[in-house]
Specification:
The chain is an alpha+beta fold and 150 residues long. Helices cover 35% and strands 13% of the residues.
């Protein structure tokens, strides 16, 4: 192989290495344990303008000083983003739950209260029969750690 062929092979190898790095790498904040970072902001978008959310919905307000909350207009005038994260005092159990579990639950419930007016209750499983079709949902629910099905 001549000099030109070696250069082309090196360019292909370098390009492949770059592609492998990009494909195998994880986006910022998606690494192992990143979802457990207590200082990370959790965000939900609520289909209500900020003027209607001057008082925080009860699930978030109930967390008190354990969380820091910011209200920001959502892009394209599509409601309000509620940003919340744990504060220094929010690393102990909150209402009997792990702090991040409590925060995520409060955000989900605050969204429901703001948009619907109450917290929606999941339908009960009317059948206790185990089937191959419902096993993936059973596994996902069991491993969700109290943070919901999805």
């Amino acid at each position: 192989m001549g000099l030109r062929g070696a250069a082309a092979a090196a360019a292909v190898a370098a390009g492949t290495a770059v592609i492998k790095t990009v494909v195998s790498g994880t986006p910022s904040g998606w690494g192992p344990g990143a979802h457990e970072d207590p200082t990370r902001w959790r965000v939900v978008t609520v289909n209500r303008p900020i003027s209607e959310l001057e008082a925080l919905p009860a699930p978030l307000a109930d967390l008190g000083d354990a969380v820091e909350v910011r209200l920001v207009p959502a892009p394209a005038d599509r409601g309000t983003e509620i940003h919340a994260r744990l504060t220094g005092s929010g690393h102990d159990r909150i209402h009997g739950q792990q702090p991040l579990e409590a925060l995520r639950s409060a955000l989900r419930e605050a969204k429901q209260v703001a948009e619907v007016g109450y917290v929606l209750e999941a339908d009960l499983n009317t059948t206790a029969k185990r089937t191959p079709l419902n096993e993936p949902l059973r596994q996902a629910t069991r491993h969700a750690g109290g943070e919901g099905r999805l």
